[in-house]
Amino acid sequence: MTITRDTIRKVVLERGKAMEHLMLILRDLETLSGNNQLTTKTLEEVAEEMNLPTSAVAGFVGFYTMFSYKPRARYVIRVCKSGPCNVMGACTIFDAIEKHLGIKPGEATTDGVFFLEKCECLGICSVAPAMMINYDLHGNLTEKKVVDLIERYRKQKPAVAEASGPEVEGRECIVKADGQTKRLTGAIGAIDPLKIDSYLGLKGYEALKKTLKEFTPEQVVQIVKDSGLRGRGGAGFPAGLKWSFMPKGDMPKYTVCNADEGEPGTYKDRILMEENPHQLIEGMTIAGYAMGSQTGYIYVRGEFRRAIDRLQLAIEQARSKGFLGSNILGSAFNFDIFIKEGGGAYVCGEESSLINSMEGKRGYPRFRPPFPAGSGFQKRPTTVNNVETYASAPMIILNGADWYKSVGTPKCTGTKLYCLSGKMNRTGLVELPMGTTLRELIEVYGGGMKDGGKFKFAQVGGTAGGILGPDLLDLPLDIDQTIQAGVTLGSGVVLACDESVCAVDFLLNVLAFFEHESCGQCAPCRIGTSQLHRLSRRFAERRADEGDIDRMIGKTMVMKKASLCALGQSPVMPVTTILKNFRREFERHCDSGHKCPACDKTLRRFYGTA
Amino acid sequence: MSKSPDATLVQAPGVTLTIDGRTVVGRKGRTILEAALENGIKIPYLCYHPRISRTGACRICLVKVNDTMFKTACTEPVAENMKVVSEDAELAAIRKDILEMLLSEGDHNCLYCDANGACELQDLVKRYDAQMPTGEFPRRKREIDEASSKGLKRNEDRCVLCGRCVKACGEIQISNVWQFTGRGSKTHLTSGLFEKIGDSPCVNCGTCSQLCPTGAIMPQLPLGNGFNWELQKESSICIYCGVGCKIDFHKNKEGMLVKATGNGDGPNEGHLCVKGRFGFDFMQKPTRLISPLIKENGEFREAAWEEALDFVAGKLKKIKADSGPDSVGALASAKCSNEDNYLMQKFVRAVVGTNNIDHCARL
Ligand SMILES: Cc1cc2nc3c(=O)[nH]c(=O)nc-3n(C[C@H](O)[C@H](O)[C@H](O)COP(=O)(O)O)c2cc1C
Ligand code: SF4
Ligand code: FES
Q: Is the whole model's pTM more than 0.90, yes or no?
């Protein structure tokens, strides 16, 4: 369908003329286009209707990989090539599609039905390898399954309810094993996420009632401080302390939930949002009360349609029951929540980049100071927390700080959602006390290494995380002890790799990710990520010399010291830890005669060489 | 362009800090870089420019704060008792590394670059002894658009993505023609909606070219070229309108004016419009009129001033006599001085005898 001026006018009117609505306006129009293309004519008219400079729209579209102003096709197939999917055989999925449809990434079938793209983590890593067809997610892919799915779409697009595969459903991505300490995930399965009554039947919104009746905002902050709750997005900053930074006073203040969940291997937030959306809404409302804020936003990555739909429904239900809106439960407290969406950019999980993205801008991180608590969304005081962090608030209020602290380690209290992926017999989400060891995660909950393979290493914390060899199998995985060991817990990713995984191939994948996801704003990261990717490719191609190992480390050091945000400061961790563990393997790859089928496969698939 | 964008800050209270062991006074709300520059300490920078908002992207101005932290001097506010190290072996090495990264990203060959000798990147490369790229990192090809616009040339292979042009256009000229697009290592500029400059909404004010630290955006040079170090600069006031922008005219060895740039001390604070920046070529063009022309039988012929003025005076008298003074009217020019304009209206009212006098600035 060609997009008419009238359609654009209508969409802009519906979504709102302000720049902050650009993402949703473009998403609507792209869907309406029928061929996943936003033509320059459409973009020009959007700019006119919204009274924006055309360059702002051009800059926006160019930043978010989910959009394209170049022609695509009726269905865009995005195949994930991030860490977990790569380890689980993403290459074979590309092979299968090329064999079946005759297209490579960046190409469309001649009939204009399918367009293939490679993409980074889709957030369903326990069912890797995975792909997305338009907005429908599919996992546990095999060559046969891919072909079947493609043919199903060719005949007819599946109805919305069944659009994403059943294996992707949140509750299906939880490891069914006893021995877990189910707090955040306790109600999952028992709750119907589409019905607020079902949440209310399990003490839902009791914590909010208690908060409004019994506590002042300062007391809520104090309870959260006492509980020891630390941010679950990756940096582990104490949540209560962060809330206390918000200035007092009547100005607009924003409570923002970071549901961008882009760190490869992470899928916990999606499960929490899909299966128990009210828990998050209640947690944010309590946080809003504690910070004197009137408005909440949940920034959900655009790929998570099911989570977005369920959250939207839950928000409406909460409004109609008086848990959101004016004078909540008869108190003087007003609070409402709105959803913002992402457009395919890992860096938008960085909180200041997320704020720019919420404003309808390119997701460039901001320098600090000013910090978000001083000047965040629309230059107003803003607090950003992860989904898991906010979702922990209701149970802390209901059961008290001491109860919360009763599990975990002294400085890292409570439970942690660990996201298992990679070469284990069982992958999925597990909820365990902070400080569970890698060995326990793999052997007990992961059911051991896949098909009896031998553990080689695990990447913990996501692509930005470190590599743990067998020597760290007994390291308690909490926020501080990982840092002391030179690695990080990050968002709780555990990607296990066996002997079949080549360390060089693995690092190449990591560094390709960083080059692709760097925002490009600051010089050391924009150029550094590109050069690191190139250097690691030299090892994969067996053209490197041993000096390249130290050159890689040197580059990551400069990036660590000089980059503007934590993305550019990250590669140092995976690079140095993998080189510490597998330096010999990298040295072997300096020999042009060295055989490495894993590297050969990657080079052939993604680099058109070897 | 040297004036502070915010005069109120000049009165801000003082903040005492040390830079490289020297005690200096900065002003509250201002940055380490501003405090350093005001005190003659030359912290290097690329993306910073006093006329635009803070950017913090090139990371060249990185300094050490309180021994432990690396901060960009251009974004970090001064604080009481702050201890800043602006340069040591480690910082110099970082700067050199970043510069070498920038060199390898583009096509930075001074030999054929218009900015040679007037390039902030080149200055820093010299200062930190950055070396030529080895070629092992293939560079990104970006847009080269040297002909679509009458005012500007764009060679993005010389761009360091500092973002000064984006802000020059967005914050000074408020035209918002430039923006970044793409992402990561594929980031590049767009003018308008992926257009050539000449097809974009650009009004050719040229402010971006003046703020560009390299040769990525250059003004078209209508009257010939010259080596930057040979150019002689003379300041003057723009002849076009009543704002009276201060302009630096640059003359080459042959005495030709090759470019005009805004001078920061004038009311324009360094800014110019298309006329001030580009409208000077007529002065030295061979087609410039140097004597009056009178049209006879459809053809122009040269005439002496005496003859031409007598001719005009005769015609005016005749029109006044035949059709009355109100059939004559005059439009004065904004290019003339107040005194000239005063005389013009005096002439029209007192000599011609009509009130039909107006001025182009009112149109
Ligand atoms: C490149 C990058 C990506 C990030 N992605 C996420 C993310 O997807 N989700 C998240 O909650 N935090 C992410 N973070 C961390 C956020 O910046 C921020 O610290 C976090 O949302 C704060 O919430 P918390 O204190 O509850 O953890 C990311 C950080 C960086 C540097
Ligand atoms: S470190 Fe990377 S992601 Fe962060 S601002 Fe710099 S270029 Fe962007
Ligand atoms: S001048 Fe400070 S980062 Fe560019």
A: yes
